[in-house]
Amino acid sequence: MTRGAETKQKTARRFNGRVTLVMAFFAMVASSLVARAVHLQVLDKDFLNHQADTRHLRTESITAHRGTILDRNGEPLAISTPVDSIWVNPKEFAGAVDKVPQLAKALDVKSETLMRRITRSMDKEFLYLKRHLDPSAAQRVMALNLPGINVQREYRRYYPASEVTGHLVGFTNIDDEGQEGLELAMNYWLEGEPGAKRVLKDRLGHSIENVESIRPPHHGKDLHTSIDLRLQYLAYRTLKAAVKSHNARSGSVVILDVKTGEVLAMVNQPTYNPNDRSQFVAARYRNRAITDIFEPGSSIKPLIVAAALESGQYRPSSVVDTAPGYVTVGAKKIEDSRNLGRISLTTILARSSNVGATKLAMTLQPDQLWGTMSGFGLGEMTSSGFPGESAGMLTHYSNWRPISQATIAYGYGISVTPLQLAQAYAAIGNGGILQEISLFATEEPTRGDRIVSADTATAVRRMLEEVVRPGGTGTKASVDGYRVAGKTGTAWKFAKGGYSKDKYISIFAGLAPASDPRLATVVVIDEPSGELYYGSDVAAPVFADVMAESLRLLAVPPDAMPARDPGSVMQAMADRTAGQ
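The chain above was modelled as a monomer; its predicted structure follows.
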């Protein structure tokens, strides 16, 4: 064999060896891959499925909607409407930051602001981009198919009656938690309990399939209030017009059901729209009828007369000598506009005699007078349960001086809320029984507490009718077809250094129909401007307008129909017979 042939043979053997080695290597690799595939597909199948599920299965919350708030007739005052909120997992979105301008346009926000928010939160896994979007707007965002962008179903509160019921119903925050009014007071009742579900997500983090329900949501319970939306609208419209007409600082109207203590209407001015968060200012949204206190002036005098009758020292026919038109207590001179002389208890109320009321109060034992007034609910919060309610102010009799007892008789040195005053008058209309105040519809009247005797309550009610009749101070509170019992009040407002001589509170509190009271209504107008500022001129007409329509809406039978001439009745009967 030649040397060249031997070289070729060696080369061929080396080549064959390399081929064999390469083939063996590939065979080994192939065998390893097959073995690995068998291992993954057969032996580690459960483990891998678990890992896949861990990466693609997520537990999501199912939002529970808040309970509806309704008026006594089933009209909605607060409802929850579905909305969508867009959120992002910044870590997943990191590779698509170049898409921020597109996303910002879909969300209707500034691109720079959005970029700054996302880049500052790269260490987080959850960041809200925009809350409470219309579902159609949220769909447009999700149609961009961006990684890490997710949608969450939520509910937003909507108030159909807006500013008409705003002070009473209140509002929720963006997380649907009660912040004011009944929304806050009854948050535990209205709020629901979220559910949970397991969902399958794609590589972009979008839910593609609901796998199973873990826990169903428990929606909030509905709340039936005592409010009659018809009366609420009526009181709101009338009060708004009066506050505007008299250029007043504020005003409140409260209407109670005398028999049950239910609040049928409660309105204030100025007001706010709970659907507009830009109006959420305490000066606008606080419920003045429950939170604000004022000195009631002469509207407190019926309670003084009631205390006098309960003492046994006076009868409805008793007479008080107010001559010479004033009385001095300590260093203070208390006067009437003129000398009324010897007058009855009825005239004390009808002519609003400060001297007469003072002399009545000064003859009573302090504990006697205090006991009756506190019994009417003054100086204590009502049972309304409304957040921020004021208890008013009725100083304990042990701290009274003679001048304290005297000024309380005509409504100074004591403070009440409109709701407290309405409750006291309702007790007079309810035969001397004080019912608990309720903002919720009741099946039947709760058992009240007797404050004064039925005879005393009836006597005071009849005296109050004379206030509204010719010669009394409250003639502008009269209602055609109905007997009205009520009392005017005009109080100077306390200012720095003493009482202001040009700032007043005008009040009218009353009952109708007086023969068998159904409604107790209080009207308070704060700081009316102009020539008219007395309760008889400012608050009484509001009472008349509200009461007239309310009684008709509730179909309360008239109790003061004009008497018909017997002759005309006979003639009508004769004409009808002739026509047949």
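Confidence is low (pLDDT under 50) at residues 576-580.
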